[in-house]
Amino acid sequence: MNDLKRDNREEQENEPQKAGSDFITERIKQRPVNKVKLLRKTLITAAMAVIFSLVACLTFLILEPVISNWLYPKEEPEPITFPAETEEMLPEDMIVDDSQMEEPAPPVEVKLEDEQIARVLDSIVLDIDDYSSMYGLMAKVAEEAGKSLVTVTGSVSDVDWFNDTYEKKNQTSGIIVAKTEREILILVNYEKIIDAENIMVTFFRGSQAQAQMKKKDVNTKLAILSVLLEELDEDAAEMLSAADLTATSSSRTIIGNPVIAIGSPLGNGDSVCYGILTSNSNLLNAVDAYYKILTTDIYGSQKASGVLINVRGQVLGIIDNSHNSEDMQNLVSALGITELRRVIERMSNERDQAYLGIHAMDVTSEANENLGVPFGAYITEIEMDSPAMAAGIQSGDIITEINGEKIGVYWDFINTMADLKPEDTVSIILMRQGPEEYVQMEVEVTLGILE
User: Beta partners for 65?
Assistant: First the structure.
């Protein structure tokens, strides 16, 4: 009996140990993962990250220039201006007023016999060395002016018949017209580089840099290229200088003077030709403007480019043979610098040209006296869909005033238009022929952009 009780007591004492042992060895089953829900959360998190990044980038792009300008304000570049042209002395300018003349000293009579005059003339002998020396001096002028010349190369990629890629290049000559603290401005005919994907400029002594087209003029087919100074070596940039644009090309006194064609007058680079300026009376009648064409006796290429300079090294014109008549296609011609100077200044400052849309000419003294035609800008043609046509201006009208500025000749109109801006509304006084006489009219015109 005692043994039975002892056995029961031992079993009762051992039961808690077994229960505890069973609890410790019990396995905990993990909750199953909801893969769809997890994927959804992952996608939402990734999408939010992308949206946050885009918002951050957009905010940075918008605010960065504002903050940069606030922390490091940039000074506005000074507007580019060109000095006024140097006036050629006219014959009438050589005549002084009596009040300006001093009492002349009594003349000393020197009588030379014909034989003495002949001996003096015979003593003046010009040989081949003198001839060579004269052209040597002109060559030095051309060399000095050539420091402002550049070669502009426009390249574009294309594909041939065999699907092979090749690079097509066109070259033309340009001229440095301005040098600022941050860039060099180059004037060039843009027809050969208008479709170029890459524009490379080669300067004096071979230094090169990438260029960007800054502004172009559809009337003259000229453009201003910009090269940042930071893209050039300091020594190379120091040697570069702008050309002298102060010469006059519109005066009759320059006819018959020697000129030098530099750049590519023969169609290939770095060529130089000498000749005589034969005429500056031909005109290129363009929209709202005209340009005098300088002709020479220099035989060159029909694709010539470069500049005409005088014996002082001053630029007289930008070579352009595309306006030559059929019988003088190979004679080097140029657009005169006098009419181009304001166009170059406008493009250099990235200003748009105000557009009225007329072709005009001067009223001659004979037409004024014999036919009673008022002086002003006589309109010969109106551009289609132009502001002038929209305002009711007609061919045969004569512009005599713009915003109170008197217009006596077509050049007055051109100068006045150069000071106006696109979208300006101007008041124009016209004279229109009536049944018996010319009648004054006033029209309001909102100018457009010449492009």
Answer: none
The band of 61, judged by pLDDT with boundaries at 50, 70 and 90, is confident
Residue 225: phi and psi, rounded to 5, are -100, 150
Q: Is 24 domain-assigned?
A: no
Residue 338 falls inside a structural domain: yes
Q: What is the 3-state secondary structure (H, E, C) of the chain?
A: CHHHHHHHHHHHHHHHHHHHHHHHCCCCCCCCCCHHHHHHHHHHHHHHHHHHHHHHHHHHHHHHHHHHHHHCCCCCCCCCCCCCCCCCCCHHHHCCCHHHCCCCCCCCCCCCCHHHHHHHHHHCCCCHHHHHHHHHHHHHHHHHHHHHEEEEEEEEEEECCCCCEEEEEEEEEEEEEEECCCEEEEEEEHHHCCCCCEEEEECHHHCEEECEEEEEECCCCEEEEEEEHHHCCHHHHHHCCCCCCCCCCCCHHHCCCEEEEEEECCCCCCEEEEEEEEEEEEEEEECCEEEEEEEEEEECCCCCEEEEECCCCCEEEEECHHHCCHHHCCEEEEEEHHHHHHHHHHHHCCCCCEECCEEEEECCHHHHHHHCCCCCEEEEEECCCCHHHHCCCCCCCEEEEECCEECCCHHHHHHHHHCCCCCCEEEEEEEEECCCCEEEEEEEEECEECC
- Domain end point (choices 304, 321, 348): 348
Q: Is residue 169 located within the same domain as residue 188?
A: yes
Comparing 3-12, 46-55, 181-190, 203-212, the range with the smallest average pLDDT is: 3-12
Q: Residue 415 has what pLDDT?
A: 92
How far is the C-alpha of 29 from the C-alpha of 13, rounded, in Å?
Answer: 31
Provide the mean pLDDT of the chain.
83
CATH number, domain with residue 431: 2.30.42.10
Whole-prediction pTM value? 0.74
Looking at the fold, whether 183 and 209 belong to one and the same domain comes out as yes
Q: Does a structural domain hold residue 441?
A: yes
* Residue range 282-340, pLDDT digits in tens: 999 999 999 999 999 999 999 999 999 999 999 999 999 999 988 888 999 999 999 99
